[in-house]
Amino acid sequence: xxxxxxxxxxxxxxxxxxxxxxxxxxxxxxxxxxxxxxxxxxxxxxxxxxxxxxxxxxxxxxxxxxxxxxxxxxxxxxxxxxxxxxxxxxxxxxxxxxxxxxxxxxxxxxxxxxxxxxxxxxxxxxxxxxxxxxxxxxxxxxxxxxxxxxxxxxxxxxxxxxxxxxxxxxxxxxxxxxxxxxxxxxxxxxxxxxxxxxxxxxxxxxxxxxxxxxxxxxxxxxxxxxxxxxxxxxxxxxxxxxxxxxxxxxxxxxxxxxxxxxxxxxxxxxxxxxxxxxxxxxxxxxxxxxxxxxxxxxxxxxxxxxxxxxxxxxxxxxxxxxxxxxxxxxxxxxxxxxxxx
Amino acid sequence: xxxxxxxxxxxxxxxxxxxxxxxxxxxxxxxxxxxxxxxxxxxxxxxxxxxxxxxxxxxxxxxxxxxxxxxxxxxxxxxxxxxxxxxxxxxxxxxxxxxxxxxxxxxxxxxxxxxxxxxxxxxxxxxxxxxxxxxxxxxxxxxxxxxxxxxxxxxxxxxxxxxxxxxxxxxxxxxxxxxxxxxxxxxxxxxxxxxxxxxxxxxxxxxxxxxxxxxxxxxxxxxxxxxxxxxxxxxxxxxxxxxxxxxxxxxxxxxxxxxxxxxxxxxxxxxxxxxxxxxxxxxxxxxxxxxxxxxxxxxxxxxxxxxxxxxxxxxxxxxxxxxxxxxxxxxxxxxxxxxxxxxxxxxxxxxxxxxxxxxxxxxxxxxxxxxxxxxxxxxxxxxxxxxxxxxxxxxxxxxxxxxxxxxxxxxxxxxxxxxxxxxxxxxxxxxxxxxxxxxxxxxxxxxxxxxxxxxxxxxxxxxxxxxxxxxxxxxxxxxxxxxxxxxxxxxxxxxxxxxxxxxxxx
Lengths: 341, 506
Ligand SMILES: Nc1ncnc2c1ncn2[C@@H]1O[C@H](COP(=O)(O)OP(=O)(O)OP(=O)(O)O)[C@@H](O)[C@H]1O
Ligand SMILES: [Mg+2]
Fold this sequence. Notes:
Chain B: It is a peripheral membrane protein. The complex is a heterodimer. Chain A has a single domain, classed as Orthogonal Bundle (ABC transporter involved in vitamin B12 uptake, BtuC). By secondary structure, chain A is mainly α. Chain A has helices at about 15-40, 50-60, 60-75, 80-100, 105-130, 135-150, 160-165, 185-205, 205-215, 215-220, 225-255, 265-275, 285-305, 310-340, and strands at about 5, 155, 170-175, 180-185, 255. Chain A is built from 14 helices and five strands. The longest helix of chain A is centred in the first third of the chain and has 29 residues, at about 15-40. Chain B has three domains: about 5-240, 3-Layer(aba) Sandwich (Rossmann fold), CATH 3.40.50.300; about 245-335 and about 420-505, 3-Layer(aba) Sandwich (Rossmann fold), CATH 3.40.50; about 350-420, no CATH class. Chain B has 17 helices and 23 strands. Strand 1 of chain A pairs parallel with strand 9 of chain B. Bound molecules: adenosine-5'-triphosphate and magnesium ion.
């Protein structure tokens, strides 16, 4: 056989391939490091571990939701309903425990199931009726916000509930006063979500199917992959994550705000893109999303440490970053094309 | 070989909005046979396959598999039922690795988790068995279309189905790769796999198939033993006209002779490291220059430099006597160079736009968006090229994705021909195009060059190169080794001799 074996080197060297896939995420991590150094160089106390720990504490809900968004974007879709679903879940939890007197554990479980099922339903509408994801989830955005306001148009506080108190119970790592830090349970929840998402995306058939569908839905269908199940699945994952994000938000504020999570879907999308995923689907990493969320958190932290700029500057800079990352992806995609003759 | 049929389709009818793609077609596949489905572009071959494998549902008719009536509702179901298919369209995902593409949906697992190590090992073994050697961990997209096609075939073969369907698997393959494929097919046939083979290369069809079913305009013409059907009769059945008329067209195409004037394009020492060694090449107005050579000899790379698709790193390029500075697809288009690339499957066509819109895209772009092409002129040009290239259905308002594969290619060719460039560069213009339309395209190329257009084209089919070209540039190992004038006695053998002889020198 060896005499008539056809050989071909990849048009791009494998080393380059290995690297090129990681360039966007590498850029994000580098950016994080630079921002950290700027912070520690300019502001007193910025270098304390608790500052970094707080990035995770303050952004736990966003992180969870952005992980769900990563699944959807990798599959080539988009989910605009997550902010509303989050508010709806937080509100439902609060209402069920405070007003209806249902045990908190049960209320949370119900909300998570509801989020997953409604996500799956959205996915089914998108797949079977061939509706644009943008439109289908935009409907969800209005629907769940409306339902939330229907339950209550003002904050509902959750007081003296053991289960909800558990969420912010802290575990200390070293002594906080000299070099240690502490993390509340919601951070561990977010960590677990990231870990599970990572394993699912990289080591299961469902996860690889998400990448395949994002690469080319038509091809995935012709290859005999379960496209319907995959597409319904990613929206179910996103729905679950949005609901869990709502629960975590309720944990951290001990209340539900009917206008909570306004515009959060856009933050989640921005985090995923800054984390290196392609909006067209098929390329990206869940760990990139973590880095993306961190970048956005670090920005607000720097601005609040500085105190001279209004917090809107964080938005402006996120906008610039988004543009920069999308341009970077275009450049990479084009150089990939060129190399391949 | 003639026991119970494994697949039996009877009275299959399939309507798309406005077109009847299949009309009461019968098809029978027997165990262990290789069965060719033949027909012109748009005859309904791919549709027949898609109805069988659950991509489309038939409007009427029955399908039996092993004697039992079946109706698959997705390719996944067909696969589970024992039918494995390589469709005419791209059907792999470029962003996943070679190994993942080979095993997508059936990855080896440890518990719920994919065992990547075992998957890569099996992928290597599978490819080695077929006779190709790739880095299975690299993304599929980093390989050439030909290799991707072979990977798709390897995947389909490995599914170990009772029935293997190959819809134009060879349309982007070169000689060596076709040999690899035919060898694999023979081995499978010996093991009792029944195969359906679709191709516009008649020599391949005759070499490998036991039986042929011919379709024309969505209806069944008949079924024959390949050995009992002479090629001229086959062409007659496919086109519904006598093969003799076809021969005549081809002869006419060879007779044209230009008077050589000022070169339109002239390359001196043009080259790009790692892709093509520096070469000299001139193309004059009204001249057709063909590039011949084996796979990987640098044919495509040569034309890409002239088209500005790749940047050259040595030598100079002059256009109409003026040396060009910055050279990229945009400036090339402004100078009047049109380039129709090889990889038409993924480059170029916008599926949701209509035939007419796709055709005028390049013309519109070359004029700039501010100046639109007058509608009357536009529809006249579109109608003219639909007729000249025999695009079917001849309806300019159909979305292009609804056309058959071959007709989509014709649309893309039309796009570049109708801007009336000074230099037209065609990379493999007749791949996947039926015998009749091939002659139409060849005639059109001759006609355009007769009107003064310079044409530079690449083709793996040496017959085509000899028939069309006034001069032939021969490539070997990424180097231009000779330029031959086409005299009356030019033959494919002469080109092969040149390639072999120069190889012996080194
Ligand atoms: N999805 C679709 N929607 C509408 N019409 C279609 C669709 N697919 C195919 N057709 C039409 O059905 C007819 C048969 O097409 P088909 O793809 O089966 O041809 P083919 O024999 O495979 O040709 P080729 O050799 O060019 O691949 C054509 O007229 C085509 O325009
Ligand atoms: Mg076809």
